[in-house]
């Protein structure tokens, strides 16, 4: 935001839809795989045929409770499914089964890191609901008059997580969404893939003069499907609202769509014409009753959560804050790190390698740690080879690149290529004597007081040894030789 | 006796089949012949599949299907056209579902077929079950076999007429506010509305989900009990189906009525009951007392709000249940339209009948924001009070007795002009659906015109055995159920 931000502040709340990692849909046994041919994962139930009834998927309930527990919410003993009625071509029953007045869980918190600091944001509610289908319009001219409907997504289980309006900047919204994604992945509840739509975000935003107590009129940005979109969309909208207020105009309550190509928010429909959803309790489902035992059972099965794990990394491995945040950002990455440390025993070296080299090659491949060609075992072996002096740091980098390229273990690469570090003092002394003989002028300069020349001589020795001489030995022996009369 | 095969009860058919005195083809053929002869006027069936039924019967006779040992082996069964049957059109007597062929069988039909029952046709109804006379069918009205100028009742009038006229042995209907009991009363049959949750609703096209229940038409109690035992019981496909249902036993049902106490809500009955109905009811009470049962006056003070509460709850749910008929995936779509909302408009304008539209409008209004608390929510609160009335009554008496309908069968068009008078014809049946409890209507006499009059026995949840017992003992003594309509005479 520009300088106008000093007078105004933004009030942001997020509604996040996360697809639960179940085998089957929320109310029938159809599969939930992404990318299957259109309408190949459907049955009379998810198609809303006359006479069919929904039967609740217990696994979805369990996954939702995992999130509810991790976010310290209060879980209702009895939550109620409701019908949200509206007409849309890709909504077969013309209503969506969701939770309304009595959601699964309420009043929780979530921690996020903003500029290296932990911030707590309130969670209003978490509820279960089914997804709708997808309509698309082909670009070919002759098909222009048609709308195609794919109902594979229909009935896919979602949780909706609604925050309190506690977020104050687009950057904070971004961080919050990232933390939530991490949490969902840690819990193995959602794969967090925004491109595939398994994580979607709507944002409510209003602005007001700083110090004012009353909220401004809000607008809602729908269906943001990238982290960039959250930040850019909110920035755009906040700036727009501030401009309006500055000109003395009023903000209209409306629903906007973020256009990621043009990078603008466009109005979808004005809230005045919005649907009256006519919610009422779903008569085809009994109230969802959750017993204390069930909650305890699920609690016992919870993994260590990102926050706990982060704190433990700092405590147990003596890592700096920054390392701990980064390494716990994704569960599989944290697992990878711990596997490396347990084998090589050097927490900080492991962290350095992972944060720089490993994440670099992973991001080059645009994948995650699971696509990394270097196993945790190979990396810890490399660190051990380095520690016991078999190879130098420089060679280690070369070996690492080879490992990334071929997927081979470090030992076999070192042996194959003869990368073993030269620690034989006599051998090193021979290299040095050779270098001294060839660079008599430099030696004279050095002896004359030009200390920089020493580095040059070390470099020449390393070059002669093809980088395999142990640099510490080179330093020591070179000094010895130079101090000889 | 061959002349009367079409009126044989299922248990007799089973015995005759076992002793090989007749074949399933004879049984199904007898019903099929009745359909051929009389259904051109009665019009009980929207679609009779007699040829298919006869070949299914032949398969049983050849012993080529395992169903030959089933309790309903070779028994021709009619099914209301709002209960899904795989591969056979199920249109709810609505233009909007014309041509819809379900890809699955409802659980009840599945269970009947597994017992050897033969589906002989899909019967007419008030569109989507909305009405009390079967005049609201989008295709044609059904006539009462007892007097072709009278309605057979509704909304399951087709099923009632089919069984009453000997065009099926038993039939399935659905009862949302009396839609099985009232037509059973109008056609001299037994009509059961089971406890909510006793019979799976899977495959019953929803009208008002919290009130709908598949019900049974039969000419005697034993058939009703057999069908009930077959179709009831927990169904994993219906979350609201109960695990508490137990089969009823004929042995228990045949026990006398000694010690049975039933209550009569006299002050509720004072409101506009026809004299002939009233007199039949009084005689029925005396007959039951003579069998050892004891009658007691009781108060059900909130039952007078049944009609108001019912029409809010039922229509609210209906407005949501019927929203899926939008012309997108199946059924009718308007031929010409300009855009998507125009398509919705025209499809629904052309596809739904007057009564259905009226109820969708009322239900949508009752649920809309700003009116929800005043209408839907308040109706639900009244519903709770009505339920509590029954619960209190069942602490004092075993069952409640009421006429099934305030009048004998009425003439065509008589109530069509005034929807409210039509709604009031269900005044004695609605409270049972609102409370989720079971009730059976049994034949209990005739008007001066010779039209059937029914009485209903209402019991607490899962007391089907008890209410069967009341209906059975009464019928054994009085025998009204043995009388048949004189169709041949009317056809001269």
Structure keywords:
heterodimer; A: 485 residues; alpha+beta; nine-stranded mixed beta sheet; three-stranded antiparallel beta sheet; 16 strands; 40% helix; elongated; B: 492 residues; alpha/beta; eleven-stranded mixed beta sheet; 18 helices; globular
Structure description:
The complex is a heterodimer of chains A (485) and B (492). Chain A has helices at 58-70, 170-186, 227-246, 292-300, 306-317, 321-327, 331-344, 347-364, 376-387, 393-406, 410-417, 425-438, 440-447, 452-464, 471-483; strands at residues 8-19, 74-75, 78-79, 81-85, 95-99, 105-114, 117-130, 134-136, 148-150, 157-163, 199-209, 219-224, 254-259, 264-270, 280-281, 288-289. With 485 residues, chain A is of the alpha+beta class. Chain B is an alpha/beta fold and 492 residues long. Chain B has 18 helices and 11 strands. Chain B has an 11-stranded mixed sheet, sandwiched between helices. In chain B, strand 2, helix 4 and strand 3 form a beta-alpha-beta unit. The longest helix of chain B is centred in the C-terminal third of the chain and has 24 residues, at 373-396. Chain B is globular and about 65 Å long. The interface between A and B is large, with 29 and 44 residues.
**Helical run tally of chain B:** 18
Rounded mean pLDDT score of chain A? 89
* Inertia-based shape of chain B: globular
Sheet of most strands of chain B: 11 strands, mixed
Q: Widest sheet of chain B: strand order? A: 1-3-2-4-6-5-10-11-9-7-8
Multimerization state: heterodimer
Task: State the low-pLDDT regions of chain B, or none.
Answer: none
Distance between the termini of chain B: 23 Å
The proportion of strand residues of chain B reads: 5-15%
- The amount of helix of chain A comes to 25-40%
Give the fraction of residues assigned to helices of chain B.
Answer: 25-40%
What is the count of β-strands of chain B?
Answer: 11
Task: Tell me the layout of helices and strands.
The complex is a heterodimer of chains A (485) and B (492).
Chain A (H helix, E strand, L loop, with lengths): L7 E12 L38 H13 L3 E2 L2 E2 L1 E5 L9 E5 L5 E10 L2 E14 L3 E3 L11 E3 L6 E7 L6 H17 L12 E11 L9 E6 L2 H20 L7 E6 L4 E7 L9 E2 L6 E2 L2 H9 L5 H12 L3 H7 L3 H14 L2 H18 L11 H12 L5 H14 L3 H8 L7 H14 L1 H8 L4 H13 L6 H13 L2
Parallel strand pairs in A: 12-13
Antiparallel strand pairs in A: 1-10, 1-11, 2-6, 3-16, 4-5, 4-15, 6-7, 7-10, 8-9, 11-12, 13-14
Helix pairs in contact in A: 2-3, 5-6, 7-8, 7-9, 9-10, 12-14, 12-15, 13-14, 14-15
Chain B lengths: L9 H9 L5 H19 L2 E4 L1 H12 L14 E5 L26 H8 L3 E6 L33 H8 L5 E5 L6 H6 L3 E4 L20 E5 L2 H11 L18 H5 L6 E4 L1 H4 L5 H16 L3 E4 L8 H16 L18 H12 L2 H14 L5 H24 L2 E5 L15 H6 L5 H6 L3 E8 L5 E7 L5 H15 L8 H5 L1
Parallel strand pairs in B: 2-3, 2-4, 7-8, 7-9
Antiparallel strand pairs in B: 1-3, 4-6, 5-6, 5-10, 9-11, 10-11
Helix pairs in contact in B: 2-3, 11-13, 11-14
């Amino acid at each position: 935001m520009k300088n106008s931000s000093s007078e105004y502040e933004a009030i942001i709340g997020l509604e996040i839809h996360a697809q639960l990692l179940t085998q089957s849909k929320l109310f029938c046994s159809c599969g939930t795989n992404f990318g299957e041919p259109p309408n190949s994962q459907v049955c009379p139930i998810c198609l809303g045929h006359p006479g069919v009834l929904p039967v609740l998927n217990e696994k979805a309930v369990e996954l939702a409770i995992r999130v509810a527990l991790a976010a310290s919410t209060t879980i209702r003993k009895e939550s109620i499914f409701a019908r949200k009625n509206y007409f849309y071509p890709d909504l077969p029953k013309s209503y969506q089964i969701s939770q309304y007045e009595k959601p699964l869980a309420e009043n929780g918190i979530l921690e996020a890191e903003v500029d290296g600091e932990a911030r707590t944001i309130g969670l209003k509610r978490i509820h279960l609901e089914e997804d709708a289908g997808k309509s698309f319009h082909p670009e070919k001219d002759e098909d222009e008059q048609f709308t195609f409907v794919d109902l594979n997504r229909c009935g896919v289980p979602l949780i909706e997580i609604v925050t309190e309006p506690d977020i104050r900047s687009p950057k904070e919204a971004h961080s919050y969404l990232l933390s939530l994604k991490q949490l969902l992945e840690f819990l193995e509840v959602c794969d967090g893939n925004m491109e595939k739509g398994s994580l979607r975000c709507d944002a409510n935003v209003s602005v007001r003069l700083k110090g004012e107590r009353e909220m401004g009129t809000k607008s809602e940005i729908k269906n943001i499907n990238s982290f960039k979109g959250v930040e850019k969309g909110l920035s755009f909208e906040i700036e727009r609202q501030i401009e309006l207020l500055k000109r003395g105009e009023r903000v209209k309550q409306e629903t906007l769509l973020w256009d990621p190509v043009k990078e603008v928010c466009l109005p979808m429909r004005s809230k005045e014409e919005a649907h009256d959803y006519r919610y009422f309790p779903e008569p085809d489902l009994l109230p969802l009753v959750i017993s204390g035992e069930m909650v305890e059972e699920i609690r016992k099965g919870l993994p260590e959560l990102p926050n706990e794990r982060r704190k433990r990394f700092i405590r147990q491995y003596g890592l700096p804050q920054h390392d701990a945040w980064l390494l716990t950002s994704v569960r599989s990455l944290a697992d990878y790190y711990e596997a490396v440390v347990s084998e090589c025993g050097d927490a900080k070296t492991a962290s350095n390698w992972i944060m720089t080299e490993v994440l670099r090659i992973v991001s080059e491949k645009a994948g995650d740690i699971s696509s990394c060609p270097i196993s945790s075992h190979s990396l810890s072996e490399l660190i051990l080879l380095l520690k016991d002096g078999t190879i130098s740091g420089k060679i280690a980098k070369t070996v690492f690149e080879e490992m990334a390229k071929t997927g081979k273990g470090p030992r076999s690469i070192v042996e194959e290529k003869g990368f073993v570090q030269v620690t034989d003092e006599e051998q090193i002394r021979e290299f040095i004597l050779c270098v001294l003989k060839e660079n008599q002028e430099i030696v004279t300069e050095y002896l004359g007081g030009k200390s920089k020349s020493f580095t040059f001589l070390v470099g020449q020795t390393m070059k002669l040894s093809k980088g395999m001489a142990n640099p510490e030995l080179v330093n020591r022996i070179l000094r010895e030789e130079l101090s000889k009369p | 006796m061959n002349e009367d095969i079409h009126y044989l009860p299922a248990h007799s058919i089973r015995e005759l089949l076992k002793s090989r005195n007749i074949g399933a083809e004879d049984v199904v053929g007898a019903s099929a012949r009745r359909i051929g002869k009389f259904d051109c006027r009665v019009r009980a069936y929207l679609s009779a599949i007699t040829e298919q039924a006869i070949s299914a019967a032949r398969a049983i006779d050849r012993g080529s299907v395992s169903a030959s040992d089933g309790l309903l082996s070779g028994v021709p069964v009619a099914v209301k056209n709002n209960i899904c049957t795989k591969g056979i059109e199920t249109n709810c007597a609505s233009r909007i579902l014309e041509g819809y062929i379900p890809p699955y069988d409802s659980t009840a039909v599945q269970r009947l077929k597994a017992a050897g029952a033969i589906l002989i046709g899909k019967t007419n109804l008030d569109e989507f079950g909305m009405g009390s006379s079967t005049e609201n069918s989008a295709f044609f009205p059904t006539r009462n076999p007892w007097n072709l100028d009278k309605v057979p009742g509704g909304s399951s009038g087709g099923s009632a007429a089919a069984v009453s006229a000997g065009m099926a042995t038993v039939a399935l209907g659905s009862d949302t506010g009396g839609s099985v009991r009232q037509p059973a009363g109008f056609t001299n049959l037994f009509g059961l509305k089971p406890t909510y949750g006793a019979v799976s609703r899977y495959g019953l096209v929803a009208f008002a989900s919290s009130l709908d229940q598949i019900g049974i038409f039969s000419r005697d109690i034993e058939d009703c009990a057999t069908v009930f035992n077959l179709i009831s019981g927990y169904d994993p496909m219906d979350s609201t189906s109960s695990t508490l249902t137990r089969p009823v036993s004929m042995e228990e049902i045949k026990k006398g009525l000694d010690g049975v106490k039933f209550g009569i809500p006299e002050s509720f009955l004072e409101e506009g009951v026809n004299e002939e109905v009233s007199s039949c009811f009084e005689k029925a009470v005396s007959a039951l007392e003579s069998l050892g049962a004891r009658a007691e006056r009781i108060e059900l003070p909130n039952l007078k709000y049944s009609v108001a509460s019912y029409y809010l709850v039922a229509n609210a749910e209906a407005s949501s249940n019927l929203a899926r008929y939008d012309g997108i995936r199946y059924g009718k779509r308007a031929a010409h339209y300009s855009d998507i909302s125009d398509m919705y408009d025209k499809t629904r304008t052309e596809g739904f009948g007057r009564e259905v539209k009226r109820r969708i409008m009322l239900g949508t209004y009752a649920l809309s924001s700003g009116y929800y608390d005043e209408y839907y929510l308040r109706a639900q609160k009244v519903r709770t009070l009505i339920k509590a009335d029954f619960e209190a009554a069942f602490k004092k008496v075993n069952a409640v007795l009421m006429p099934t309908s305030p009048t004998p069968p009425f003439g065509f068009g008589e109530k069509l002009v005034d929807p409210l008078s039509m709604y009031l014809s269900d005044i004695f049946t609605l409270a049972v659906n609102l409370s989720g409890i079971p009730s059976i209507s049994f034949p209990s006499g005739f008007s001066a015109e010779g039209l059937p009059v029914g009485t209903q026995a209402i019991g607490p949840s899962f007391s089907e055995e008890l209410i069967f017992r009341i209906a059975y003992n009464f019928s054994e003594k009085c025998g009204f159920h043995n009388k048949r309509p004189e169709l041949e005479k009317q056809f001269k």
